[in-house]
Amino acid sequence: MASDQRLTATDGSGFLSGFWNMLGKENGRWIKTRRWLVQSVVWLLLLNGLVTMILYLESDVTIQGPPGSDLGPPSYVNVFFALMGSMTPFGVMVLTQSDIVGEKQSGTAEWVLSSPLSRDAFLLSKLLTNALWIFGLLVGLQGLAFNVVLARFGVGTVPWPDLARALGMECLHLVFWLTLTMMLGTFFSGRGPVLGIPIALLILQDLSELATIWVPSLPQYMPKRLTEMATALAMGEPLSTWVPIATVVVCSVVFVLAALWRFKREEF
């Protein structure tokens, strides 16, 4: 709560009244605590730790195994982006599921909004701060570490321009889950639905493969398609379609607009 009490007075009114003040407060939740360090270490272990283990085991088999035991070089790019695409959405949900709900339950939102701070600025500052830190720690840092790990084991690294495009695609993938979770936080007063609904949707994406019998193009509209596209970009391949990108962008904009609309009607 200490960081929540460091807001300074601000004048003015309007759509983004108090935005920069609130942005500084939200940024302080990362900078002035060990949150950034903990998340960096956790995700380095979860993503690049697993890749390192696979590389170590594969190199051990190649060196010590009998003739013919080499199973061939696995696609480490596939492994890395498959892990990132399946695990980081859960990270987004856990990191943001209490941002709105927690402040409503504790009464902090009511107190903060009693100052010259618009509700739009309250939501957008949280969204922007979370996006920047999540992209930086869960995506950017992991991509940089991935190439370092590959170089350490003498495996060909991903060209930096290709890696940057692939990581950008993963950031867009996480925008979907970030905006969805933030929106749900404005509609519900408990953490259960805010966390449960995105997890259910994440799981249902895999089950949607069964529906391709009736709707063959359905997988093209799923957010997880962006992870497959990120893998292709990392391998230097061109984009095969813009449909999933357009779908995620439209959904994310709708989620943000719905969150702004609902939060303006929240009674404190």
User: How many strands, what sense, and barrel or not for the largest sheet?
Assistant: none
Give the DSSP E fraction (strand runs of 2 or more residues). under 5%
Helix content: 55-70%
Order of helices and strands: HHHHHHHHHH
Average residue-wise pLDDT: 85
What's the multimeric state? Answer: single chain
Low-confidence stretches: 62-74
Report the end-to-end length measured between terminal Cα atoms: 19 Å
Figure out the total of helices. Answer: 10
Structural class: mainly alpha
Number of domains: 1
For the secondary structure, the number of strands is: 0
Shape field: globular
What is the alpha-carbon Rg in Å?
A: 21 Å
How would you explain this protein's 3D organization?
The chain has helices at 19-31, 35-64, 76-96, 101-106, 108-112, 119-152, 160-187, 191-207, 225-234, 243-264. The longest helix is centred in the middle third of the chain and has 34 residues, at 119-152. The protein has one domain (16-264). 69% of the residues lie in helices and 0% in strands. The protein is mainly α and 268 residues long. It has 10 helices and no strands. Helix 2 (35-64) runs antiparallel to helix 3, helix 6 runs antiparallel to helix 7 and helix 7 packs across helix 8.
Could you provide a short overview of the structure?
With 268 residues, the protein is mostly helical.
Keywords:
268 residues
Write the layout of secondary structure elements.
Layout: H1 19-31, H2 35-64, H3 76-96, H4 101-106, H5 108-112, H6 119-152, H7 160-187, H8 191-207, H9 225-234, H10 243-264
